């Protein structure tokens, strides 16, 4: 069966194979992966992409599991229960399987439901990057008809920020009583948060954590980078308390996710973001492709010898540029 047809028909095995294809990022499969993504592209753009990030161990996977269950049972503003896709990005090196296994266990409930598709990604360090593979995987789920797609990542690295920027709504999940080093992560995540979640609200110091985040939000002028340059409707970043272990606060959190979606649509922000994303995507592809084509035409060792001449001051960088480009 044609892989693209399988994905469009919502066939789970086809979806799994398609994601593996884009995740492996093997040069030999490059054309097949690109062909597939081209065939799927006209069918994408329907899903709501929700990035879920935050410090390690704050309960992101448990929370996503609960959110998926809630969306499966009842989805506000949708006529039917939504099909849910979950992409969990390997928080550590590709060689440690522990975290992935843990995620599978925590997401077991959701994974047993045929309306939920759970996938872990482990391509950190691969050429082309994790963010790109994750974005491609989300496109596949979108084309396969998953209406809400959660992408879980840890921390505030470049990949996480890139993933957050390509999501529609980003949840930053924190837990009460985390140390100072976590404050720094929180600060890094501040500007990408559309909604803050204080999970583990069964702990006593939850209200204190909520207040601390609210103060940070008030203190940072960029309470929402998505608002930059936007006149009219403003999104105030809410801070929600949840207990992912028993589902407390989940309906309220889903209501905020749905209001953020409505805000994006009504303010025209959704269209703006699609445009910005399309622009960034095309630019990245073009840069990468032009550079690799250029390199493939150079005689072997040419670049290396130029680099060493530059380092030994025999050649100025601009002279090298002129020689390489011929003008
Ligand atoms: N007390 C309490 N514990 C929770 C809650 N939510 C999750 N946990 C526990 O916190 C631990 C970490 O949960 P995970 O869902 O794996 O957290 P995570 O943020 O996905 O972890 P990483 O992906 O490794 O960063 C687990 O032992 C959970 O059972 C909660 O609301 N209250
Ligand atoms: Mg997790």
Structure description:
- With 327 residues, the protein is α/β, with parallel strands linked by helices.
- The chain is built from 14 helices and seven strands.
- It has helices spanning 3-8, 12-24, 30-40, 60-73, 98-106, 108-111, 130-143, 158-165, 180-190, 206-219, 250-266, 269-297, 302-311, 317-325; strands at residues 48-54, 84-89, 116-121, 148-152, 169-174, 195-198, 239-241.
- A seven-stranded parallel β-sheet has the order 3-2-4-1-5-6-7, sandwiched between helices.
- Strand 5 (169-174), helix 9 and strand 6 (195-198) form a beta-alpha-beta unit.
- The longest helix is centred in the C-terminal third of the chain and has 29 residues, at 269-297.
- The protein starts with a helix and ends with a helix.
- The relative contact order is 0.12.
- Magnesium ion (MG) binds at residues 60-61, 103, 152.
- Guanosine-5'-triphosphate binds at residues 56-62, 91, 99, 102, 106, 154, 199-200, 202, 243-245.
């Amino acid at each position: 069966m044609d892989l693209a047809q399988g994905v469009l028909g919502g066939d789970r095995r086809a979806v799994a194979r398609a994601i593996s294809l884009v995740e492996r990022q093997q040069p030999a499969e490059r054309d097949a992966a690109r062909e597939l993504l081209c065939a799927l592209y006209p069918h994408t753009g329907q899903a709501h992409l929700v990035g879920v990030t935050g410090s390690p161990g704050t309960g992101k996977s448990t929370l996503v599991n609960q959110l998926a269950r809630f969306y499966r049972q009842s989805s506000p503003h949708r006529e039917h229960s939504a099909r849910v896709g979950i992409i969990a990005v390997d928080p550590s090196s590709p060689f440690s399987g522990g975290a992935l296994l843990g995620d599978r266990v925590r997401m077991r409930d959701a994974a047993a439901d045929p309306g939920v598709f759970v996938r872990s990604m482990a391509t950190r360090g691969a050429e082309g990057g994790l963010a790109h593979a994750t974005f491609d995987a989300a496109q596949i789920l979108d084309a396969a008809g998953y209406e809400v797609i959660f992408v879980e990542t840890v921390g505030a690295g470049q990949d996480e920020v890139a993933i957050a920027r390509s999501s529609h709504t980003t949840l930053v999940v924190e837990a009460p009583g985390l140390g100072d080093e976590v404050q720094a992560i929180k600060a890094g995540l501040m500007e990408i948060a559309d909604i803050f979640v204080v999970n583990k609200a069964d702990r006593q110091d939850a209200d204190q954590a909520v207040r601390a985040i609210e103060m940070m939000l008030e203190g940072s002028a960029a309470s929402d980078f998505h608002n930059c340059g936007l006149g009219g409707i403003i999104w105030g970043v809410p801070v929600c308390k949840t207990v992912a272990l028993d589902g407390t606060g989940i309906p309220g959190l889903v209501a905020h996710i749905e209001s953020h979606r409505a805000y994006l649509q009504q303010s025209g922000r959704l269209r703006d973001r699609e445009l910005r994303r399309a622009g960034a995507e095309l630019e990245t592809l073009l840069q990468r492709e032009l550079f690799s084509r250029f390199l493939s035409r150079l005689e072997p060792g040419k670049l290396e010898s130029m680099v060493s001449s530059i380092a030994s001051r025999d050649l100025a960088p601009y002279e090298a540029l002129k020689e390489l480009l011929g003008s």
